[in-house]
Amino acid sequence: MKILIPVDGSANASRAIERLVASLRWYAARPSIELLAVHLPVPNVYAFSHVISRSMVESYYAEECDDMLRPARALLDASGVAYVVHTAIGDIGECIVAKADALECDLIWMGTRGMNAAANLLLGSVATRVLHLARVPVTLVPVGPTANAQ
Q: b/e per residue, 81-95, with b = 16+ CB within 10 A?
């Protein structure tokens, strides 16, 4: 089994990692963990490339994705869980689903921000977008106490 875990560096993403680690004992064989950070593309403003080089933008993306991945990597490393790191630039929901497809993942496991129904309806959410686009099951870990409290 292969599980994709998109993370953004938030407490909710860390909670999802904690719950995943706690649930690993449920599996007969330890699943393969694919960790993903997705960054929105910087706006393509007129004459942008005259001021900021491509390497500067790539460095920015790398630093930002490293920041997003750091808390999840620390939790997985502390738990002794092996994982593979991926990064992507683009629409977050679409990149998550595209990466799950490309890696042939069996499950997407992700945290939610805990928006209420009205806020979700007005603003939308990455989780909602992934649910609509995914061709594999999606486990959403809601805002709440950590898995260690169970």
A: bebebbbbbeebbeb
Q: Of 2-6, 23-27, 66-70, give the lowest mean pLDDT range.
A: 23-27
Rounded CA-CA distance 126/136 in Å is: 16
Mean pLDDT, residues 18-43 taken together? 93
Tokens of 5: 């875990």
Q: Which two tokens mark 15?
A: 């909670």
**What is residue 96's predicted lDDT score, i.e. its pLDDT?**
97
Extract the tokens encoding 79.
């738990």
Query: What's the distance, Cα to Cα, between the start and end of the chain in Å?
Result: 25
Report pLDDT for 112: 83
Angle between helices 126-133 and 92-102 (to 10 degrees): 40
